[in-house]
Amino acid sequence: MLHVWRAADRYRGGDAAAGVDTRHAFSFSGFYDPDNVGFGMLVACNEERLAPGAGFPEHPHRDVEIVTWVVEGELEHLDSTGRSARVRAGDVQRLGAGRGVRHVERNAGPGPLRFVQMWLVPGARGGGDASVPSGGEPEYEVVHGIADGTPFAVPRTDAVLHVRRLADGERTAVPDAAWVYVHVVRGTAHVGPASRQGGARGGEQLAAGDAARITDARDLEARGVDGPAELLMWEMHAEPSYG
Fold it and tell me: Which end of the chain is more exposed for a tag (fewer CB within 10 A), N or C?
C-alpha cells in the first residue's frame, strides 16, 4: 500500500519572528493527530528553514535517534557532552540521545539554512538485532559528503537511510521492506512498480516536500522526472517498542 502525504498538507510550525519555519509530516509539538503519530520507526520528519543566526536554544532529548540531512547552508551543533560540529549540504548528522543529552542547533552560515530532520524510536517489536534496550550513552557522528546510494544504518534501530540523487529519467530500486518512507528533497520523482514487471503502470508522482509511505514494499522503483531529483528513502523492518 502506498500513501502520499503532500507538502501542502504538512503541519506548519516554528516562529516566524525568530526566523524559524518548520513543516511537520507527523504529530509534533503543538500539532497532534492521533491518526498520524508515526510510520514504522519514524516519528518525525521535519523540514526546517532557518534565517541566518536563527536556531533552537538548548533543549533535552532521550531515547531517540535524530538524523539530519542538510539541504543548503551550514548547521552548527553543540551538545552537553562537549561535542560541536558544522554540518553542510550533503552531510548526514546522527545524534543518538541515549539516556539523555541536551543540544543547541542554529544557522551558522551567512545565508539561509534548510535541512530535513528525522526522528526514530530505538528498539523494535518483533525481535532481531533491533531489540535493543533504551538508554545508553549519547552518541554523535557526521558523515561528510555521503556518496549517492550509500546506505546509512542507524544504530539501536532496524532502520537504514538511502540517499539517492537521480538524473532525469534515471531509476533506482525502492528497498523491499515492511515500511518504506520516501521523502523528495528536490525535484520530482515517480514511485511505482519496477519497469521489469512487463511495463506495469501505476504509482504516484511526488514533488519536492512530498512523501510516500509504503507498507510491504516489493518490486518498486523511483524515477527522476523532468530533471534531477534528490530522495531520502527509509528502509524499516520493525515498529518501535515502548517497553
Answer: C
- pLDDT at residue number 183: 98
45 half-sphere exposure, CB direction, 13 A CA radius = 27
Alpha-carbon distance 165 to 207, whole Å? 14
Helical residues (DSSP H) of the chain, grouped into ranges:
none
Domain that holds residue 125: 11-146
Indicate the pLDDT class of residue 121, thresholds 50, 70 and 90.
Answer: very high
R_g over Cα of the chain: 17
H or E stretch including 179? strand 177-193
Using alpha carbons, select from 235, 204, 206, 243 the residue that is nearest to residue 40: 235
Decide: helix, strand or coil at residue 217: strand
- Specify the 3-state DSSP secondary structure of 9: helix
The reply to whether 34 and 131 lie within a common domain is yes
Name the DSSP class of 176.
P
132 in any annotated domain:
yes
Predicted confidence (pLDDT) per residue in 204-223, tens digit: 999 999 999 999 999 999 99
| Whether the predicted pLDDT of 86 surpasses 50 | yes
Return d(Cα 21, Cα 82) in angstroms, integer: 28
User: What is the CATH number for 205?
Assistant: 2.60.120.10
Residue 83 has pLDDT above 50, yes or no: yes
* 16 SS3 class: helix
Contact (Cβ atoms closer than 8 angstroms) between residue 154 and residue 161: yes
Structural domain contains residue 138:
yes
| 159 grid coordinates | 532502520
Instruction: Check whether residue 31 and residue 124 sit in a common domain.
Output: yes
